[in-house]
Design goal:
The strands form two sheets. Strands 7-1-9-18-17-16-15-14-13-10-11-12 form a twelve-stranded mixed sheet, with helices on both faces. Strands 3-2-4-5-6-8 form a six-stranded parallel sheet, with helices on both faces. The model has no long low-confidence stretch (mean pLDDT 96). It is elongated, with a radius of gyration of 26 Å. 38% of the residues lie in helices and 16% in strands. It starts with a strand and ends with a helix. It is of the alpha/beta class. Helix 7 (238-248) links the parallel strand 10 and strand 11 (255-259). The chain has two domains: 5-204, YjeF N-terminal domain (Rossmann fold), CATH 3.40.50.10260; 229-459, UDP-N-acetylmuramoyl-L-alanine:D-glutamate ligase (3-Layer(aba) Sandwich), CATH 3.40.1190.20. It has 15 helices and 18 strands. The chain has helices at residues 9-21, 26-45, 58-73, 88-97, 128-139, 179-182, 238-248, 277-280, 299-310, 320-324, 342-351, 359-370, 405-418, 423-441, 447-459; strands spanning 5-7, 50-54, 77-80, 110-116, 141-147, 170-174, 177-178, 192-196, 207-209, 229-233, 255-259, 271-273, 286-291, 315-317, 336-338, 373-376, 382-384, 390-392.
Length: 462
């Protein structure tokens, strides 16, 4: 779906060119894009005065069209343009505006400020003069809206190219989401994000936003094994594996078993298997295995990891398993999902001789090099598949930054794999359910409280 795809600057330019090749002009596309943005701005402004800041390019041209449309809606409109239009479309849009244009923001006040200074093509910092103008106009209006992207943001990386960029109440994405809309630090200044369609068609190889899973109730003849047996390997710190099990029990699997010698569970719903690990993982009824949370890093832990990987089952690797993992442990065609935080991601890149910078590029390169699905968790969670697929999870509450929540994510993931979801799909489902469970927890929660909310997040998907 085009309202889920995330495009790079190059992909967006190609998508727009395809629209032009099909017969539309730049001016026609500008009317569509700016007209859609103007409808959002009309609702936000609610009759208040509007100031539009226009740059020299087609983003500035969008601004002139917005100004004209808002004047037609009956709003009082001012246009500030520190530079003359530089493209034919922007020149035509300014001519159609026909109203006065100020080159300075001095003394300009109003209800709503609309930033159309620079768009997604910006790759260098704003000049000091333009940065000051942007900050000043934002400070002297009650509400601020950015069209496509806030000026001073790098589209592909989400970097802030200038210090002290203003925060916006709403950002209107034109035609497609950009990576900056969903990644830090840029998304922290964008406020509410809204999508404005302009006729962009699906782009092959484009990244996407994780969508709400489409889950169903069990079949009328279901039983615990048909719904999937998820096995979770315990280790030196049993609490972590228990947290994973609590989450797994609420994420769809029909049977969750903890594989741990000498571990006494106080939860009567959790079955503990004390057999030697090689024997325990050989059970043909096991649909997926999680190993890593609380595993430890001694020789016994490494032996458990090898036993799990030798069992040739779909599996999730997390925490200590990511530190112990070696390239020669993986068989060809292994069905593995790993859920590293940043430190573990760097460690895995060293293990598989991957050189890349940033969570997104590391996840993509590591998935290709290792053959594993990578769920690189953090404030921006990227999920990458060996075949090149990439998705970004919707931003989750920052209250997730507490010990044990990663164990909950891993538990959800193994539960989804046990129900039959392949590794990439399971990672997407787990990331969404994890974030939704956190939203339902509200502020200040513990990992076990998060695990219990997984069931309510699941219910939202039925």
């Amino acid at each position: 779906m085009t309202d889920r795809q995330i495009l790079t600057v190059a992909q967006m330019q190609a998508a727009e060119q395809a629209i032009f090749d099909a017969g539309s002009s730049v001016e026609e596309l500008m009317e569509i894009a700016a007209g859609g943005a103007a409808e959002w701005i009309r609702r936000i402004a609610a009759g208040r005065s509007i100031t539009v800041l226009c740059g020299p390019g087609n983003n500035g041209g969008d601004g002139y069209v917005i100004a004209r449309r808002m004047r037609e809606f009956g709003n009082e409109v001012r246009v500030v343009a520190p530079m003359e239009p530089a493209t034919d479309a922007a020149k035509n849009a300014r001519k159609a505006w026909g109203g006065s244009v100020s080159t300075s923001g001095e003394g300009v006040r109003g209800g709503l400020f609309v930033d159309c200074l620079f768009g997604s093509g910006l790759s260098r910092p704003l000049s000091g003069e333009h940065a000051l103008l942007l900050r000043d106009l934002a400070a002297h209006h009650h509400h601020c809206v950015a069209v496509d992207l806030p000026s001073g943001v790098e589209s592909d990386s989400g970097a802030l190219l200038n210090d002290r960029l203003p925060a916006f109440d709403v950002t209107l994405a034109l035609g497609a989401w950009k990576f900056a809309h969903w990644t830090l630090p840029a998304r922290s200044i964008m406020g509410t994000r809204r999508f404005v369609p302009i006729g962009v068609t699906p782009t092959e190889g484009a990244a996407e936003i994780v969508e709400r899973p489409r889950l169903t109730a069990p079949a009328v003849d279901a039983h615990k094994y048909s719904r999937g047996l998820a096995a979770i390997v315990g280790g030196a710190m049993p609490g972590a594996a228990t947290l994973s099990a609590m989450a797994a029990q609420r994420a769809g699997a029909g049977y969750v078993k903890l594989l741990a010698e000498d571990h006494l569970s106080l939860d009567p719903t959790l079955v503990c298997e004390g057999a030697p690990i090689d024997e325990a993982v050989s059970d043909p009824r096991i649909a997926a295995i999680l190993v890593g949370p609380g595993l430890g890093r001694e020789d016994q832990a490494r032996a458990k990891l090898r036993a799990v990987l030798n069992a040739d089952r779909p599996c999730v690797l997390d925490a200590d398993a990511l530190i112990l993992l070696e390239g020669d442990m993986l068989a060809d065609g292994a069905r593995i999902l790993v859920t590293p935080h940043d430190g573990e991601l760097v460690r895995l890149c060293r293990t598989f001789a991957v050189i890349a910078e940033g969570r997104r590029d590391r996840a993509i390169a590591l998935a290709k090099a290792s053959g594993m699905v990578i769920c690189a968790k953090g404030p921006d969670t990227f999920i990458a598949a060996p075949d090149g697929r990439l998705v970004i999870a919707p931003p989750a509450p920052s209250w997730l930054s507490v010990a044990g929540t990663g164990d909950v994510l891993a538990g959800i993931a193994v539960s989804r794999m046990a129900t039959g979801s392949e590794a990439f799909e399971a990672a997407c489902e787990a990331a969404w359910l994890h974030g939704e469970a956190a939203r339902r927890c509200g502020p200040v929660f513990t990992a076990d409280e998060l695990a219990h909310q997984v069931a309510t997040a699941y219910r939202a998907c039925l």
